[in-house]
Specification:
This protein has 366 residues and is of the alpha+beta class. It contains eight helices and 20 strands. The protein has a domain at 279-353: Aminomethyltransferase beta-barrel domains (Elongation Factor Tu (Ef-tu), domain 3), CATH 2.40.30.110. The strands form four sheets. Strands 11-12-13-10-4-14 form a six-stranded mixed beta sheet. Strands 15-18-17-16-19-20 form a six-stranded antiparallel β-barrel. Strands 6-7-8-5-9 form a five-stranded antiparallel beta sheet, with helices on one face. A hairpin with a 2-residue loop joins strand 11 and strand 12 (178-183). The N and C termini lie far apart (48 Å).
Protein backbone atom coordinates (compact mmCIF):
# COMPACT_ATOMS: atom_id res chain seq x y z
CA UNK A 1 0.00 0.00 0.00
CA UNK A 2 1.29 3.44 -0.91
CA UNK A 3 2.25 5.86 1.84
CA UNK A 4 0.61 9.24 2.26
CA UNK A 5 1.98 12.58 3.41
CA UNK A 6 0.13 14.48 6.17
CA UNK A 7 -1.38 16.64 3.41
CA UNK A 8 -3.11 13.85 1.48
CA UNK A 9 -6.62 14.98 2.47
CA UNK A 10 -5.76 18.60 1.66
CA UNK A 11 -4.64 17.58 -1.82
CA UNK A 12 -7.82 15.60 -2.47
CA UNK A 13 -9.96 18.47 -1.19
CA UNK A 14 -8.14 20.82 -3.58
CA UNK A 15 -9.06 18.58 -6.52
CA UNK A 16 -5.63 17.09 -7.08
CA UNK A 17 -5.21 14.06 -9.29
CA UNK A 18 -3.26 11.61 -7.17
CA UNK A 19 -0.77 9.07 -8.51
CA UNK A 20 1.64 6.52 -7.08
CA UNK A 21 5.17 7.92 -7.02
CA UNK A 22 8.12 6.25 -5.30
CA UNK A 23 5.75 4.34 -3.04
CA UNK A 24 3.71 7.44 -2.13
CA UNK A 25 0.31 8.77 -3.19
CA UNK A 26 1.23 12.21 -4.48
CA UNK A 27 -0.54 15.01 -6.40
CA UNK A 28 0.55 15.05 -10.04
CA UNK A 29 -1.59 18.09 -10.86
CA UNK A 30 -4.40 20.28 -9.55
CA UNK A 31 -5.61 22.55 -12.37
CA UNK A 32 -3.19 21.29 -15.02
CA UNK A 33 0.55 20.99 -15.60
CA UNK A 34 0.75 23.93 -18.03
CA UNK A 35 -1.12 26.34 -15.79
CA UNK A 36 0.78 25.27 -12.67
CA UNK A 37 4.14 25.56 -14.45
CA UNK A 38 3.38 29.11 -15.60
CA UNK A 39 2.16 30.04 -12.12
CA UNK A 40 5.58 29.16 -10.70
CA UNK A 41 7.41 31.12 -13.39
CA UNK A 42 5.16 34.21 -13.00
CA UNK A 43 4.18 34.22 -9.33
CA UNK A 44 4.88 31.29 -7.00
CA UNK A 45 3.94 27.67 -6.45
CA UNK A 46 3.49 25.65 -3.26
CA UNK A 47 4.80 22.08 -3.31
CA UNK A 48 4.33 19.22 -0.85
CA UNK A 49 7.65 17.36 -0.84
CA UNK A 50 7.12 15.49 2.42
CA UNK A 51 7.92 12.19 0.68
CA UNK A 52 11.62 13.12 0.58
CA UNK A 53 14.01 11.57 3.11
CA UNK A 54 15.81 13.46 5.89
CA UNK A 55 18.77 11.75 7.55
CA UNK A 56 20.81 13.27 10.38
CA UNK A 57 24.48 12.53 11.00
CA UNK A 58 26.19 13.96 14.07
CA UNK A 59 29.03 13.25 16.46
CA UNK A 60 32.80 13.92 16.61
CA UNK A 61 33.50 12.08 13.34
CA UNK A 62 30.46 13.23 11.35
CA UNK A 63 32.48 15.28 8.87
CA UNK A 64 34.98 12.48 8.30
CA UNK A 65 32.13 10.05 7.68
CA UNK A 66 30.52 12.35 5.12
CA UNK A 67 33.82 12.95 3.37
CA UNK A 68 34.14 9.20 2.80
CA UNK A 69 30.52 8.73 1.71
CA UNK A 70 30.14 11.68 -0.67
CA UNK A 71 31.94 13.04 -3.73
CA UNK A 72 31.86 16.74 -2.85
CA UNK A 73 34.00 18.40 -0.16
CA UNK A 74 31.79 18.56 2.92
CA UNK A 75 34.56 20.42 4.79
CA UNK A 76 33.61 23.52 2.79
CA UNK A 77 30.09 23.65 4.25
CA UNK A 78 29.79 26.24 7.02
CA UNK A 79 26.97 26.24 9.54
CA UNK A 80 23.95 27.63 7.72
CA UNK A 81 25.00 26.38 4.30
CA UNK A 82 23.85 23.56 2.03
CA UNK A 83 25.77 21.59 -0.58
CA UNK A 84 24.76 19.45 -3.54
CA UNK A 85 26.63 16.16 -3.55
CA UNK A 86 26.50 12.52 -4.67
CA UNK A 87 26.71 9.06 -3.20
CA UNK A 88 28.61 6.74 -5.52
CA UNK A 89 29.31 3.03 -5.86
CA UNK A 90 32.93 1.85 -5.90
CA UNK A 91 32.42 1.59 -9.69
CA UNK A 92 31.58 5.31 -9.87
CA UNK A 93 27.89 4.73 -10.55
CA UNK A 94 25.50 7.08 -8.74
CA UNK A 95 23.62 5.70 -5.73
CA UNK A 96 21.76 9.00 -5.30
CA UNK A 97 22.16 12.75 -5.62
CA UNK A 98 21.67 14.51 -2.30
CA UNK A 99 21.76 17.85 -0.51
CA UNK A 100 23.75 18.18 2.71
CA UNK A 101 22.89 20.87 5.28
CA UNK A 102 25.31 21.81 8.02
CA UNK A 103 23.41 22.68 11.18
CA UNK A 104 24.63 23.76 14.60
CA UNK A 105 24.34 20.21 15.93
CA UNK A 106 25.32 18.11 12.91
CA UNK A 107 24.39 17.46 9.30
CA UNK A 108 21.05 16.83 7.60
CA UNK A 109 21.24 14.76 4.42
CA UNK A 110 18.20 15.07 2.15
CA UNK A 111 17.71 12.11 -0.20
CA UNK A 112 15.29 11.27 -2.99
CA UNK A 113 12.07 9.56 -1.96
CA UNK A 114 12.56 6.65 -4.36
CA UNK A 115 16.00 5.97 -2.89
CA UNK A 116 15.29 6.62 0.78
CA UNK A 117 15.39 3.01 2.03
CA UNK A 118 18.37 2.19 -0.18
CA UNK A 119 20.25 5.28 0.99
CA UNK A 120 19.60 4.55 4.66
CA UNK A 121 21.10 1.07 4.28
CA UNK A 122 23.98 2.36 2.16
CA UNK A 123 24.94 5.11 4.58
CA UNK A 124 24.45 3.16 7.79
CA UNK A 125 26.55 0.23 6.60
CA UNK A 126 29.44 2.51 5.61
CA UNK A 127 29.55 5.02 8.44
CA UNK A 128 32.97 5.43 10.01
CA UNK A 129 34.05 6.60 13.45
CA UNK A 130 32.11 8.04 16.37
CA UNK A 131 28.87 9.13 14.72
CA UNK A 132 25.15 9.08 15.44
CA UNK A 133 22.73 8.33 12.61
CA UNK A 134 19.02 9.21 12.74
CA UNK A 135 16.39 8.70 10.08
CA UNK A 136 13.85 11.47 10.73
CA UNK A 137 12.00 11.08 7.42
CA UNK A 138 8.78 9.75 8.96
CA UNK A 139 8.36 12.78 11.22
CA UNK A 140 9.61 15.53 8.91
CA UNK A 141 7.40 17.48 6.53
CA UNK A 142 8.84 19.46 3.63
CA UNK A 143 7.09 22.28 1.79
CA UNK A 144 8.58 24.36 -1.00
CA UNK A 145 7.59 27.88 -2.07
CA UNK A 146 9.08 28.55 -5.49
CA UNK A 147 8.85 31.50 -7.86
CA UNK A 148 9.62 35.22 -8.18
CA UNK A 149 7.19 36.12 -5.36
CA UNK A 150 8.37 33.38 -2.98
CA UNK A 151 10.27 35.72 -0.65
CA UNK A 152 7.43 38.25 -0.54
CA UNK A 153 4.94 35.53 0.38
CA UNK A 154 7.10 33.80 2.98
CA UNK A 155 7.99 37.13 4.60
CA UNK A 156 4.34 37.51 5.59
CA UNK A 157 4.65 34.54 7.94
CA UNK A 158 8.15 34.89 9.40
CA UNK A 159 10.34 37.46 11.10
CA UNK A 160 13.44 35.70 9.75
CA UNK A 161 15.55 38.03 7.59
CA UNK A 162 15.08 36.28 4.25
CA UNK A 163 17.25 38.87 2.49
CA UNK A 164 20.20 37.52 4.48
CA UNK A 165 19.80 34.12 2.83
CA UNK A 166 21.28 33.41 -0.57
CA UNK A 167 21.04 30.27 -2.70
CA UNK A 168 22.05 27.13 -0.78
CA UNK A 169 21.95 28.88 2.58
CA UNK A 170 19.66 27.99 5.49
CA UNK A 171 18.75 28.96 9.03
CA UNK A 172 16.40 27.99 11.81
CA UNK A 173 13.36 30.19 12.27
CA UNK A 174 9.62 30.20 12.69
CA UNK A 175 7.03 30.22 9.91
CA UNK A 176 3.45 30.90 11.05
CA UNK A 177 4.63 30.08 14.57
CA UNK A 178 6.11 26.71 13.54
CA UNK A 179 9.80 25.96 14.16
CA UNK A 180 11.45 25.18 10.83
CA UNK A 181 14.67 24.97 8.89
CA UNK A 182 14.27 27.68 6.25
CA UNK A 183 16.42 26.93 3.20
CA UNK A 184 16.87 29.00 0.05
CA UNK A 185 16.93 25.97 -2.23
CA UNK A 186 14.65 24.34 -4.77
CA UNK A 187 14.28 22.26 -7.91
CA UNK A 188 12.66 24.67 -10.34
CA UNK A 189 15.35 27.11 -11.48
CA UNK A 190 13.43 29.88 -9.70
CA UNK A 191 14.20 31.69 -6.48
CA UNK A 192 12.47 29.97 -3.60
CA UNK A 193 12.55 28.29 -0.23
CA UNK A 194 12.20 24.84 1.25
CA UNK A 195 10.81 24.46 4.77
CA UNK A 196 11.62 21.45 6.96
CA UNK A 197 9.54 21.01 10.11
CA UNK A 198 7.68 18.55 12.35
CA UNK A 199 5.00 16.85 10.26
CA UNK A 200 2.26 17.44 12.84
CA UNK A 201 2.16 21.06 11.64
CA UNK A 202 1.93 20.27 7.92
CA UNK A 203 -1.75 21.15 7.46
CA UNK A 204 -1.36 24.32 9.53
CA UNK A 205 1.60 25.59 7.52
CA UNK A 206 0.12 24.57 4.15
CA UNK A 207 -3.09 26.43 4.98
CA UNK A 208 -1.30 29.56 6.17
CA UNK A 209 0.97 29.70 3.14
CA UNK A 210 -2.02 29.45 0.82
CA UNK A 211 -3.89 32.09 2.84
CA UNK A 212 -1.16 34.70 2.34
CA UNK A 213 0.04 33.48 -1.06
CA UNK A 214 -3.19 33.00 -2.99
CA UNK A 215 -3.97 36.75 -3.21
CA UNK A 216 -0.54 37.20 -4.83
CA UNK A 217 -1.13 34.46 -7.39
CA UNK A 218 0.41 31.47 -5.63
CA UNK A 219 -1.23 28.09 -6.11
CA UNK A 220 -0.54 24.43 -5.21
CA UNK A 221 1.66 22.66 -7.75
CA UNK A 222 1.97 18.94 -8.41
CA UNK A 223 4.72 16.61 -9.54
CA UNK A 224 3.88 17.11 -13.22
CA UNK A 225 4.88 20.77 -13.28
CA UNK A 226 7.77 20.08 -10.92
CA UNK A 227 9.18 17.81 -13.62
CA UNK A 228 8.80 20.33 -16.47
CA UNK A 229 10.24 23.10 -14.30
CA UNK A 230 13.35 21.11 -13.39
CA UNK A 231 13.79 20.00 -17.00
CA UNK A 232 13.76 23.59 -18.29
CA UNK A 233 16.42 24.37 -15.66
CA UNK A 234 18.38 21.31 -16.87
CA UNK A 235 18.33 19.71 -13.43
CA UNK A 236 18.82 15.95 -13.48
CA UNK A 237 16.24 13.52 -12.11
CA UNK A 238 17.42 10.34 -10.43
CA UNK A 239 15.94 7.30 -12.13
CA UNK A 240 15.83 9.11 -15.48
CA UNK A 241 19.06 11.06 -16.03
CA UNK A 242 21.05 9.53 -13.16
CA UNK A 243 21.32 5.96 -11.92
CA UNK A 244 23.81 3.35 -10.77
CA UNK A 245 24.97 2.83 -14.36
CA UNK A 246 25.87 6.49 -14.90
CA UNK A 247 28.75 8.38 -13.34
CA UNK A 248 28.94 12.04 -12.27
CA UNK A 249 31.49 12.70 -15.01
CA UNK A 250 29.15 11.39 -17.70
CA UNK A 251 26.24 13.33 -16.21
CA UNK A 252 28.04 16.68 -16.34
CA UNK A 253 28.42 16.80 -12.56
CA UNK A 254 32.22 16.74 -12.36
CA UNK A 255 32.15 20.05 -10.44
CA UNK A 256 30.67 18.14 -7.53
CA UNK A 257 33.45 15.55 -7.52
CA UNK A 258 36.42 16.73 -5.48
CA UNK A 259 39.37 14.54 -6.35
CA UNK A 260 41.60 16.52 -3.99
CA UNK A 261 39.98 14.65 -1.11
CA UNK A 262 42.18 11.76 -0.01
CA UNK A 263 39.41 9.18 -0.08
CA UNK A 264 35.77 8.75 -0.98
CA UNK A 265 33.75 5.85 -2.33
CA UNK A 266 34.13 5.72 -6.11
CA UNK A 267 37.22 7.94 -6.29
CA UNK A 268 39.52 5.41 -7.96
CA UNK A 269 36.99 4.42 -10.60
CA UNK A 270 36.19 8.04 -11.41
CA UNK A 271 39.89 8.95 -11.63
CA UNK A 272 40.35 6.06 -14.05
CA UNK A 273 37.39 7.20 -16.16
CA UNK A 274 38.71 10.74 -16.20
CA UNK A 275 42.15 9.55 -17.34
CA UNK A 276 40.76 7.27 -20.05
CA UNK A 277 38.29 9.85 -21.31
CA UNK A 278 34.53 9.94 -20.96
CA UNK A 279 32.82 7.93 -23.68
CA UNK A 280 29.35 9.42 -23.34
CA UNK A 281 27.90 12.63 -21.94
CA UNK A 282 24.52 13.96 -20.88
CA UNK A 283 23.36 16.76 -23.17
CA UNK A 284 20.34 19.00 -23.54
CA UNK A 285 18.71 19.32 -26.95
CA UNK A 286 15.87 21.20 -28.64
CA UNK A 287 13.80 19.52 -31.33
CA UNK A 288 14.12 21.05 -34.80
CA UNK A 289 11.26 18.92 -36.10
CA UNK A 290 7.93 18.35 -34.39
CA UNK A 291 7.71 15.57 -31.83
CA UNK A 292 8.11 15.09 -28.10
CA UNK A 293 11.24 13.17 -27.08
CA UNK A 294 10.22 10.53 -24.55
CA UNK A 295 12.31 8.67 -22.00
CA UNK A 296 13.94 5.67 -23.69
CA UNK A 297 13.72 6.92 -27.29
CA UNK A 298 16.92 6.16 -29.28
CA UNK A 299 19.24 9.01 -30.28
CA UNK A 300 20.81 8.67 -33.71
CA UNK A 301 23.68 10.16 -35.69
CA UNK A 302 23.19 11.63 -39.17
CA UNK A 303 24.06 8.21 -40.61
CA UNK A 304 21.31 6.53 -38.59
CA UNK A 305 23.64 4.87 -36.08
CA UNK A 306 22.33 4.70 -32.52
CA UNK A 307 24.54 6.99 -30.43
CA UNK A 308 22.55 7.34 -27.23
CA UNK A 309 19.16 7.46 -25.53
CA UNK A 310 16.69 10.08 -24.32
CA UNK A 311 16.48 10.22 -20.52
CA UNK A 312 13.98 13.10 -20.07
CA UNK A 313 11.77 15.01 -22.49
CA UNK A 314 8.72 17.23 -22.70
CA UNK A 315 7.22 20.30 -24.27
CA UNK A 316 8.70 23.35 -22.53
CA UNK A 317 5.75 25.42 -21.26
CA UNK A 318 7.97 28.51 -21.10
CA UNK A 319 9.29 28.36 -24.66
CA UNK A 320 6.74 26.21 -26.47
CA UNK A 321 9.55 24.05 -27.83
CA UNK A 322 10.05 20.31 -27.43
CA UNK A 323 13.15 19.73 -25.28
CA UNK A 324 15.04 16.79 -23.86
CA UNK A 325 18.06 15.39 -22.08
CA UNK A 326 19.97 12.33 -23.17
CA UNK A 327 23.32 10.58 -23.27
CA UNK A 328 25.28 10.63 -26.52
CA UNK A 329 28.76 9.61 -27.56
CA UNK A 330 31.24 12.22 -26.35
CA UNK A 331 32.36 13.26 -29.83
CA UNK A 332 28.78 14.34 -30.60
CA UNK A 333 28.25 16.17 -27.29
CA UNK A 334 28.96 19.58 -28.81
CA UNK A 335 26.62 22.61 -28.74
CA UNK A 336 25.18 23.16 -32.21
CA UNK A 337 25.58 19.51 -33.21
CA UNK A 338 22.57 17.92 -34.90
CA UNK A 339 21.36 14.58 -33.60
CA UNK A 340 18.16 12.68 -34.33
CA UNK A 341 15.47 11.26 -32.08
CA UNK A 342 13.83 8.09 -33.32
CA UNK A 343 10.07 8.39 -32.84
CA UNK A 344 7.88 5.55 -34.06
CA UNK A 345 10.42 4.57 -36.68
CA UNK A 346 11.08 8.08 -37.95
CA UNK A 347 14.25 10.10 -37.22
CA UNK A 348 13.52 13.69 -36.21
CA UNK A 349 16.25 16.32 -36.00
CA UNK A 350 17.31 18.01 -32.77
CA UNK A 351 20.08 20.46 -31.88
CA UNK A 352 22.32 20.11 -28.84
CA UNK A 353 22.40 23.27 -26.76
CA UNK A 354 24.78 24.76 -24.21
CA UNK A 355 23.47 25.49 -20.74
CA UNK A 356 19.88 25.57 -19.56
CA UNK A 357 16.71 25.75 -21.64
CA UNK A 358 15.45 28.60 -19.44
CA UNK A 359 17.81 30.86 -17.49
CA UNK A 360 17.93 30.21 -13.75
CA UNK A 361 16.76 32.97 -11.42
CA UNK A 362 18.21 31.74 -8.15
CA UNK A 363 19.63 34.33 -5.75
CA UNK A 364 23.37 33.86 -5.82
CA UNK A 365 25.64 35.55 -3.30
CA UNK A 366 27.59 38.42 -4.94
Amino acid sequence: MSKRTPLYEAHVAAGARMIEFAGWEMPVQYTGVLEEHKTVRRYAGLFDLSHMGELFISGPDALEALQYLTTNDAAKIDVGQAQYSLLCLPTGGIVDDIVIYRLEDGYMVVVNAANSDKDVEWIQSRLRGDVTFENRSANTALLAVQGPLAAEILAKLTTTDLDALYSFEACRGQVAGVDAIISRTGYTGEDGFELYFDDQYAVQLWTELLRVGTPLGMAPVGLGARDTLRLEAKLSLYGNDLDENTTPLEAGLSYFVRFEKEEFIGREALLEQKAEGIRRKLVGFVMQERGIPRHGYPLLSASGEKVGVVTSGSVSPSTGKEIGLGYVQSELAVPGETIYVEMRGKARAAEIIKGRFVAAKTRRRP
